[in-house]
Amino acid sequence: MAPKPLGKWEKYGKRYCRDWERETGLKEWIRSVPGDDTKAACKYCACEIRAHHSDLVAHSKTKKHKRHVALFSHSSDMKKHSFEFEVENQNSFDDDITQAKLDQSVNVCALKLAAHIACHMSIFTVDHLGCIVGGIAEKDISLHKTKCSTLIRNVIGPTVHKELLRDIGNGHYSLIIDENTDVSAQKQLCLIVRYFSNKLKCIVSSFAGIINLTRSGTITEALLTFLNDNKLNIKRCVGIAADGFNTSLCGNKNSLLKKFYELNPCGVFIKYVSYSLYLCSSKAIDVLPLNIEYMVSRTYLWFSHSTFHQKRYHELYAAISVGENFLKILQLTETRWLSISPCINRVLDQYEALMLHFQSIRDNERDYSAELLYQMYSDPVNRLYLVFLQPLIEEANRINKLFQFETVNPVNLIAELMLFYQNLVQRVMKPCVFTTWSSIVNYDIHCNRNYMPLSEVNFGSAFLSELINANLSSHTVDTIQSRCRDCILEFAKQIKLRLPPNVHHLESLSALSPSVVLSPTKPEFSTLSFLSLCRGDHIKLKQQWRNLDAVSWTNTEDSQIEQFWIEVAKHTDEVGDKDFVELGLFALALLTLPFSTAAVECTISQMNLIKTKLKNRLQDSLLENILRIRAYMHRNKICCNQFQPSKEMISLFNNEFYAIANSKDATDDSEEDIF
Q1: Cystine design at 370: which of 215, 218, 297, 361 (Cβ 3.0–4.6 Å)?
Q2: Has residue 547 got a pLDDT over 70?
């Protein structure tokens, strides 16, 4: 007969827990059994009980126990009826103080371990990690999957979220919104809040929460409910960043953007730039011949699954490129935005070696793929297209990387994007003077009359040099130049579709740079278009703007724009009054506009790494609080080894917590395998 499988508690070796001596309903009678931590004792009934919480609760409800309690309640000498293994002086005042300190230190250790698990590891590992750490520290740390997940979900996560909401307070903030579908096919809305932190004295972008989207409700209703539940006033929201091509977010009818403008007419909407640049480059490359992208991607596949091909190419490359390090061909993938830029660079750097390699394979073996790739590499037209694409995609990739940084100057970000668009237009259009960003956006790039002749289009010096060396016919040259011009035009058209609709507001943000503010020729405050976003006293703001250059400031570099306006907001006059606080806070509110989407992209990546196919039953409440803890660590620039539980966390770690941890619902949010 097969042995009976071990139950849950037999598997983990349940032991006597000192915390029971503080739990209401148990602390009046429970005692430990010296030498046997698998049992507990009742001082009223003089009996031993298995050290399982459910058994102890069941014993306290028996008629026998209630009868003995009633008998001992009238006795004046309880000590003579206690059994022989009761510890003497258990209830003395000094021992209670010592035990309370010991229990608190154990709780702090458990909270730190739970925070470590939330930051770095799977909850499954805590079953053994708690025992190991407890043995090293010589403390009775009882921390397993159920208790750890409850600490994360009901103690640490909510506490750090309340701290975030207190830090935002009634100040201005911006939202970054993105949709995600997890492994369980659940559509979610990830929210990032960007605000000026009075506690940290800087502008931070931090995870705010997850909204589950159902068919019965709209995104707008779900977001407004979330803001109301978290006491965030939508009228204090400076701007929202979202995917400009998501109709539920930015459509013309019943969209979130339309409702946002109704509730907050002064708000600003900003389209995602990082993903937009990827789409723009993809559309532009589609204008070129299909074999260009095929050649780059197929070259990687030729080497990726064959060590024989890699070895032969490595030997060939070492023979013709003495002293140079061999670099692998990179993969072209749609999941990595603008990954084609480093792929093209790597192919062009090794172009001759690759062509010789495929020629050698073609001559010695009958391989159709090698024959096809050799024909492509030996065609100078394909090399011309790659040389043309290289600087174009590199510049787009550089701007895309700028938008991936959280601490970059937001004024410079939109300026870089507009300059890139202007350069594309000026390469193919007739000479024209652009005085403002609005004039650039309003320029008609669809009119054929504005196009320059092919001979005057700026294709780049590297392309022209390669074109001369190629010795192609005039018809072929015209075809190549025509396609390259169309590629530039398509790139410009795609960027124009994705430019922010209120570019005049964003252009005026450049006036917040210290070099402009402190300049004697700074613009009048009333002429700045972002003034319409302010609900405050315009006269007071205008007066403070005029007096800014009368003070000697410390942070005057344009790269210190955030520190400059923090200094302005904190400045005090001779009598101790903050004389620039309104202007400083207004400028900081404008600087919270979410141009960079790095925070939401990183958060969604973390969501997909935490909830995987093997952990597909991880509940949303646990996932959300894990992300809250990670966001807390990130914005405070600490890790789990520097985490110190707050007094609020320790106070929540009480008897009521144990009631939740031992309930059936607490076990439903733990991670489970798909198998």
Answers
A1: 361
A2: yes
